[in-house]
Amino acid sequence: MESHISGGGMDEKELRVANQRRVGSSESLVRILVVLLTLVAALVQWLDNQTKVVPTTPPTLPATYVSVTAKWYYLSAFVYLVVANVVACVYAAFSLVLSFANRGTKKSSLEQLIIILDLLMVALLFSAIGAAGAIGLMAYVGNSHVQWNKVCNVFGKFCHQVVASVVLTVLAAVAFLYLVVLAVFGLNKRSN
Amino acid sequence: MESHISGGGMDEKELRVANQRRVGSSESLVRILVVLLTLVAALVQWLDNQTKVVPTTPPTLPATYVSVTAKWYYLSAFVYLVVANVVACVYAAFSLVLSFANRGTKKSSLEQLIIILDLLMVALLFSAIGAAGAIGLMAYVGNSHVQWNKVCNVFGKFCHQVVASVVLTVLAAVAFLYLVVLAVFGLNKRSN
Description:
Two copies of one chain form a homodimer. With 192 residues, chain A is mostly helical. Chain A is 74% helix and 7% strand.
């Protein structure tokens, strides 16, 4: 009877270790994905500029044209998007190393620190998405009440790159959300 | 010797129950605070409008003036801020009832659901903070590159109310962050 219980305990332990390994590799894969997503999102926004030749305002006779360049750092919301992605990318790479180092040892304080930092990345990236999304939408549709004219009708490529960077940042933020959920489920499973 | 071990077990159990109760009341207090913060943040933004008499643009001779009103729903970022706060307020009230109902029973699936929804509120509120913050900043400083003029020099009271609402939303979002951290620490304590 005793050996039966002991054997059951071993099976359960093995199952738990196998489960932890599975969660661990899933976590590592998500962190690698986040490094790539935030790196590409930062690069896409950082390389975003477009030059167009447009008629002068107010229009003159004879018509004269000027060359106008849109650059990513002209709008602080896009600077914030790049900075947030760089911070998240560096942290994701760092946390990947930390979670590898923690795998064998199970240091719960380090595990907690990683969850809290993941959580802060969720906050950081979603605020950057909100900021860049709001300014991007304003550039796309404009607003007659405050007399802010749309600019995406002129700088189409520039705006498309903003959309691409925001979409990549959304994916990275959702991946961080998933990492926190994974950690919460893992801890809950252990506590039961 | 056996009675000593049993007594020690009881003490530990009592300590755990007392700790859970302490965490539970702290959680309830934070949820009540969140209901109040998001309610006031939504109301402050929802009641935000200001009418000013300003000279016409372009200026005419003799000078003519028009009455211009700034309303919160003219800018979609502020509509998003109100909607996000209302959603967070309703959820916080609902989760308060749920966490009360869950206190005696310890249903881990319900506990997990609450943590995940708290996490989604963090994402929702921080994206709204980013959006309203970026548009608010643009209204405050303007941007010469895209020719979006600042409007806070005219509608000062309107902008102050936006700042108040954003600050209250930041506090509510940080409170949700704290709730997730509290839950993670609680689960981790139980798992050790």
